[in-house]
Amino acid sequence: MTVHFVGAGPGDPELLTCKAANILRQTHCCIFAGSLVNPEILELLPKSALRYDSAGMTLEEIVEVIQEMHAEQHDVTRLHTGDPSLYGAIAEQMNVLDKLGIPYSVVPGVSSFQAAAAALKLELTLPEVSQTVILTRVAGRTPVPETQEMERLAATRSTLCIFLSIGQIEELAKKLIQHYGETCPVGVVFRASWPDEKIICGQLDDIAEKVRGENITRTAMILVGDALDRTAATASRLYDKHFTHGYRKGENS
After folding, report:
1. pTM above 0.85, yes or no
2. Strand-strand pairing, 198-203 and 159-163
3. pLDDT: which is higher, 18 or 243
4. Is the CB of residue 233 less than 8 Å from the CB of residue 55?
């Protein structure tokens, strides 16, 4: 018996990995985040599969279900949105399973920051513009370590992918302007890859107003940085005809 922590991806069922789909098709019990997981993904479950919506469950209740399945020698699929390693609260679950001696695996999924970048048609690491991507969030009910506060991260001028923060977009923009400037491009993607996906493009000085105008208060990814302006990039050396690498000799080399 194994507990499989599975990434359901950002929403679109076609972005579910083959491995994740195979696990879902064979599972006896699925515990899923009902408020976030696309119901179409749950259609992959066997009709006989036990289903538990974790939205209204505590950690203790989740573990109790897992223990019952373990006693009966049944696998459990713990279905998380996006990639379970990002803001998935799986560490606390795995720690309990370690103590109980219950084996588990982790199956990665496509993250919402990747789906948002795809929706915006972006390369987050433009040559000579940004070679660093920071995945972060502003402090809310879950605090952020002092060394990782937004002002400190913004000082790097990296490409920022900001989770779980759309409700504080106005305050966030004011903090980022100090390092990125008022005209730095911003992309906000609501429910990336879902049928009702919304894309809002702007600058740090107007993005809050645009987001308010669309009445977006949750389930949105915020991308910030100079890399959002594709015209700012210089051409990559990877395909430069004068550049030599291990698989191609450049001209005049």
Report:
1. yes
2. unpaired
3. 18
4. no
